[in-house]
Structure to design on (101 residues):
């Protein structure tokens, strides 16, 4: 299966260069992003290098962490700003709950 707008490290592992670009722009180390987003430094580095597939749950965390849209991270759009989020809509509540697990 090919993924649109991403570089591939194989058929099952999309590589999203923007996660590394965002980390670099914020002057953060891999270990710091890993700590702040709740994954091991090894796992984060593997995500950034495209060695393993990135879980959707983690992409959501990154979008909240960097305050960008998921579409921006996966290179579907070039606009960084996240979509308008309502404070207490059901989807946001579910996503926040799911991402904090």
């Amino acid at each position: 299966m090919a993924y649109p707008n991403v570089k591939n490290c194989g058929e099952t592992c999309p590589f999203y260069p923007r996660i590394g670009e965002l980390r670099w722009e914020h002057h953060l180390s891999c270990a710091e992003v890993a700590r702040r987003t709740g994954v091991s430094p090894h796992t984060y580095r593997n995500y950034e290098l495209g060695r393993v597939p990135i879980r959707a749950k983690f992409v959501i965390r990154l979008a909240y962490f960097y305050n960008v849209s998921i579409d921006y991270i996966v290179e579907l759009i070039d606009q960084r700003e996240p979509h308008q989020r309502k404070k207490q809509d059901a989807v946001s509540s579910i996503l926040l709950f799911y991402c904090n697990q």
